[in-house]
Amino acid sequence: RERERETPSLTHPHTLSPTCCTHETVNGESFTLNRFDAPVTAPRPESYAEDFRLAQGPAASRNESLVYAALASAAESGWDFSSRWFAGAGLGTIATPNIVPVDLNSILYVVETTLADMHTDMGNQSAAALYNIAAAARADAMTKLLFDSTRVRWCDLNISSGTQRNTTTSCPGAGFASQFVPLWAGLADQCVLSWFGCCNDGLINL
């Protein structure tokens, strides 16, 4: 009974997520993943002066609305202001909506599998099937678009350049903690786990 009351409140924010989708095509195959893209065209009220100074200063050569949207999107992510969102050196290059974050999509994968399990427990097989399909599609997209088999890690995807972001801009060679969130989400198959020298039963909870 409790689960039946809670499921609609969990389903609603997932269905109407404030994060935008990006549709990528690789070798004729289409994929859909989520990214942060706040519908903002002005400085954030809580940081109006700082945002305005950035748009008029270091980011003066860029469209103001895009700068404000990128700042708000980074704040929405909880990673404000990580170099994950920078196109170059410094905050003036922030371009959050151009990045498909591996951690956001890992969390949404867990949401989808959890909702599938909840609907299954309640006997809603059709709804469970929809979420299982969504989770499987997301896992496939993350494997094909976000996983770097050479470095054996998941990476954010820059949709402007079509390239994976493997390292920080401030410390080349170093990665982000977000790259390991797929392990927590259970997205690693046995092949990937073997690279990390662990197995499903012995994987440490991150």
Can you tell me about this structure?
By secondary structure, the protein is of the alpha+beta class. 43% of the residues lie in helices and 13% in strands. It has seven helices and seven strands. It has helices at residues 2-15, 48-56, 64-77, 102-121, 125-145, 181-185, 190-195; strands at residues 20-26, 29-35, 99-100, 147-148, 153-154, 156-158, 163-165. It has a three-stranded antiparallel beta sheet with strand order 3-6-7, with helices on one face. Strands 1-2 form a two-stranded antiparallel sheet. A hairpin with a 4-residue loop joins strand 4 and strand 5. The longest helix is centred in the middle third of the chain and has 21 residues, at 125-145. The chain starts with a helix and ends in an 11-residue tail after the last helix. Residues 198-206 have low confidence and may be disordered.
List how many beta strands DSSP finds: 7
Order of helices and strands: HEEHHEHHEEEEHH
Strands in their spatial order, largest beta sheet: 3-6-7
Q: What share of residues are in beta strands?
A: 5-15%
Give unreliable regions as ranges. Answer: 198-206
Mean pLDDT across all amino acids: 82
Major pleated sheet:
3 strands, antiparallel
Broad shape: globular
Distance between the termini: 32 Å
| Helix percent band | 40-55%
Q: What structural category characterises the helix and strand content?
A: alpha+beta
Number of helices: 7
Radius of gyration: 19 Å
> What is the chains' assembly state?
single chain
